[in-house]
Amino acid sequence: MELILNNVEVNIAAEKIINGVNMHIKNNEFVALLGPNGSGKSTLLKTIYRVLRPASGTIFLNDLDIQKMSNRAIAQKMSVVSQFQTNSFDFTVKEAVLIGRNPHLKMLEREKQSDHHIVEDALRKTGLEQYQDRWVSNLSGGERQRVALARAITQNPSIMILDEPSNHLDIKYQIEILHIIKQLNLTVLAALHDIPLAAQFCDYIYFIKDGVVVYEGRPKEVITKEVIKEVYEIDCEVFEEPNTKKICVSYYTPNQLGETR
């Protein structure tokens, strides 16, 4: 499944938040959307999963214009994991994850054995098998986020949209969540907060600032101290760890910056 944005603009209260964005997320790529707070990341994602409507431009899933698709058709192809997980009603973990099958059921249709097999597979992939009978309200933040991810997997999507899914989690859970997503072999577009984690897990990166894509490319191409300075207005050093070959970023505090000069 490919996701294609052509000259997308989004206005909120007469203010242009997204300005002429073009993106092409290729099949089975894990793509990161990076940028400072207020840059338009969440607004762009909400437009893709149709919480917001673009003022102009088009968004396609393969050759299908999402504005012409039904909610059910969208939900059968696209799942969404947001930053904060809340529940109006209490469910067991398995019940919460089973909700992901709803887009594939007809009105009043009960889940079949095949649906339960899909849930069991999602619980296994997210390491939640032993939690399936526990109440979601009794879980930690990282565990709840895994429940949300399992529910998104249970939708059996072709593309997954992630709005900073690990931003408020401890580093252990951040790595855990992104590792699980990487193993799914899906088309993924994720707004992320942590630049080194994006470099570690993502195939391609878009940097957005003030509603405009300012850089795009493979992690080693665009994660540079010059790009980070321009996008985030902070000085840093970017280097490759010799043993793991992972990209690392070391940020300067104002005092350190003064000392180096």
Topology:
Layout: E1 3-12, E2 15-25, E3 30-34, H1 41-48, E4 56-61, E5 64-65, H2 71-77, E6 78-81, H3 93-98, H4 113-125, H5 141-154, E7 159-163, H6 171-182, E8 187-191, H7 195-201, E9 204-209, E10 212-217, H8 219-222, H9 225-232, E11 236-240, E12 247-251, H10 254-260
Parallel strand pairs: 3-8, 3-9, 6-7, 7-8
Antiparallel strand pairs: 1-2, 1-4, 4-5, 9-10, 11-12
Describe the structure.
The protein has 261 residues and is an alpha/beta fold. It is built from ten helices and twelve strands. The strands form three sheets. It has a six-stranded mixed β-sheet with strand order 6-7-8-3-9-10, sandwiched between helices. Strands 2-1-4-5 form a four-stranded antiparallel β-sheet, covered by helices on one side. Strand 9 (204-209) and strand 10 form a beta hairpin. It is globular. The mean pLDDT is 91.
Features:
261 residues; alpha/beta; Rossmann fold; 6-stranded mixed β-sheet; 4-stranded antiparallel β-sheet; 10 helices; 12 strands
Could you write a compact summary of the structure shown?
The protein is of the alpha/beta class and 261 residues long. The protein has 2 domains: 221 residues, Rossmann fold (3-Layer(aba) Sandwich); 28 residues, no CATH class.
Strand content: 25-35%
CATH topology of the largest domain: Rossmann fold
Average of the residue pLDDT scores = 91
Indicate the low-confidence ranges by residue numbers. Answer: none
CATH architecture of the largest domain: 3-Layer(aba) Sandwich
Shape: globular
The computed structural class is alpha/beta
The CATH homologous superfamily of the largest domain is named P-loop containing nucleotide triphosphate hydrolases
Major sheet size, sense and barrel closure: 6 strands, mixed
What is the helix/strand order? EEEHEEHEHHHEHEHEEHHEEH
N-to-C CA distance: 49 Å
Which strands sit side by side, in order, in the main sheet? 6-7-8-3-9-10
- How much helix is in the residues? 25-40%
